[in-house]
Amino acid sequence: MSTLASRRDVIRIRLVRQGLFDGRLRGVTEVTDRLLALQAQDYAAAKWALGVRAPGTTLADVDAAINSGRIVRSWPMRGTLHFVPAVDLGWMQQLTGPRIVSRSRTRHAQLDIDRDVIERARAVAVHALSGGRELSRAEFLAVLEENGIGTSGQRGYHLIGHLALTGTLCWGPQRGRQQVLVLLDEWVRSPRRLDRDEALGEFVLRYFDGHGPATLRDFAWWSQLTVADARAGLAVAADRLAELVVDGVTYYLAAAADTGDADEAKGHPTQRSPLLALPAFDEYLIGYQDRSFAIDDGSLGRVVPGGNGMFLPLILASGRVIGTWRQTKTARSVSLEPRPFDPLSAGQAREFERAVAQYAHFLGLSVGGNPTAAPTAAPAAAPAEPEPPLA
């Protein structure tokens, strides 16, 4: 049975389900369990995507979850790195991997990567990493070179990505500020085993639980499954989903989902949601094909300058993107410069200072400088060196 709803209802519930307002999540693993996957080609930004959804969490907490293997960073979909619950990576890749591999063939041909090269690299990886051993990216590429497998240009990166996508490797614990490569079946010892229909239903349910209300088209874009597979998953999960109809369009969310206190907020559903400093590539914006609930089309180019797929950090107020920010960090402090689309009000400026303090606490640093004193006309800086997509 469908329920009529407004666009404001969608915004309010998304904030709640994404852990950004009212009923926030209690820790890093709860964030990944809820959202299933958070885009993570920008490693530092992805850690803050976890932290901002679990208030009080620190960078050390995120690192501990990574080092314990409870969450894992790999390529579960769209040829892009994501954080996912470790136990869920395998069934996700079984659904998504074949399409990504198919789309990668043209790029592999350009890099002279064929099946023989891939299987030689896989054998090298298994031999070098078996028994709980780990290698940094540079060390692993050196081992490939020693075994006659060239890694120049993007060749090494695409070999690592393919071996991860097909279930041999994943990024494991941290060494310094970077992760090291490990064998997936040694790092994730008790993966969930789902048949294809179960996996499709789980994929759909988990997306709508953490990202809903959203459309089936949003899910198909996010997962990059075929529309037929998306519909099959919807059929499997249908009895566990609720439907909202907004302007004649059906949006889904998990039937058991806590959507916050709708009665208290009736008429002003996002009035009390805080102003937030969200990271680059945050799921609140990037997790949907239709981004109009979060940002006006005319402002999207200021978040993705040049339309090149590089999403800047966001200032979010009442569920809407009102600007971007950039940071300046030293060994002891961090400051954030707001780049609002329109000047911040006095109240928003105070809220931004609170958001800066939350981010500084997460990093274990003090707040440096005056976070709201920077000019607002200069262009925002792009995120630092995110990993490129595989396809």
UniProtKB/TrEMBL annotation:
GO molecular function, one term: DNA binding
Keywords: DNA-binding
Compositional bias segments (type: Low complexity): 372-384
Region (Disordered): 372-391
Pfam families to which the protein is assigned, alphabetical: AlkZ-like (PF06224)
PANTHER family: LMO0824 PROTEIN, WINGED HELIX DNA-BINDING DOMAIN-CONTAINING PROTEIN
Organism: Cryobacterium psychrotolerans
DNA-binding as UniProt keyword: yes
Protein name: Winged helix DNA-binding domain-containing protein
InterPro entries recorded: AlkZ-like
TM region positions: none
